[in-house]
Structure formats: C-alpha cells, structure tokens
Automatic annotation (TrEMBL):
This is DNA polymerase Y-family little finger domain-containing protein. InterPro entries: DNA_pol_Y-fam_lit_finger_sf (IPR036775), DNA_pol_Y-fam_little_finger (IPR017961). It comes from Effusibacillus consociatus. Residues 1-85 form the DNA polymerase Y-family little finger domain. Gene3D superfamilies: DNA polymerase, Y-family, little finger domain (3.30.1490.100). It holds the Pfam family IMS_C.
C-alpha cells in the first residue's frame, strides 16, 4: 500500500513528511490511526517504510485486522531535490520513475515486491478491485 501511496504522490508532483498508519480490527471493534512526522520530505517507499513499521510495532495489539490505511501528508511540491552524502538520490528517483512508467504501461502487478507473492500478499487481489470492491 505504501508503494501505491508514494506512486500517487510522485504522479501528483508531491512529497510528504508525515506518514500515517491506521488499522481497523475485526468486527469493527476498535483500531487506531497514528502518524509520524519525519525530518525530510519524501515520496520513496523505501525511505518511509521504517517509520510505518515503527507505528505498527508500537500500536498494533496483535488483534485480527479488517482494514489497513496508509497515508502521506504535510505535502509540498517535489520540484526540489534533497541530496545526500550517503545515498544516490538521482539514481533512486530515476528507478522510481522507471517503475512507475512500467506499472502505468503494463499494470499494477507487472513489478511487485517478492513478499507480495506469499500467501498473505494482497497486491494481486487488490489490483482487480476499485475502491476495495470487484467490478
């Protein structure tokens, strides 16, 4: 889901610096929505994933989950590029753009993370739905 949120942000020319994670528990019996503001703007799932994982580890009660929400906000135009001494930002951005182009041309499931091929993976199923429903 984070990959999709970041792809949409890139398509809109936006980067964000607050990620959010929400879970609704089975039977609609509670849940949470928590956010984490980070020190930099990003539209890269690999950069934002550790923050979402921290929110999950911190707030999930291990109850069954019915729905998951992932968000990115505190947005700004992505016309500026934050360079790094330890990361090749230009190469990473080019890779993300190439992956977005392939998905746009060949479909959402043309490139996916290997974890999505496991039994619990949802990407293939979600790619057949609009708004969470089969058409």
């Amino acid at each position: 889901m984070l990959d999709e949120v970041c792809r949409r942000a890139r398509a809109a020319g936006q980067k964000g610096r607050r990620v959010g994670l929400g879970l609704t528990y089975e039977g609609l019996q509670g849940g949470f929505f928590k956010t984490k503001t980070i020190d930099f703007y990003s539209d890269e799932a690999n950069q934002l994933y550790p923050f979402l994982l921290h929110l999950l580890d911190r707030w999930w009660t291990r109850d069954g989950v019915r729905a998951v929400t992932v968000s990115l906000d505190l947005l700004r135009k992505s016309n500026a590029l934050q360079l790094s001494l330890v990361d090749d930002v230009i190469k990473r951005n080019s890779l993300s753009k190439a992956m977005d182009d392939i998905r746009a041309k060949y479909g959402e499931t043309s490139i996916m993370r290997a974890i999505s091929l496991k039994q619990a993976g949802q990407l293939a199923d979600r790619s057949k739905k609009i708004g969470g429903h089969y058409m």
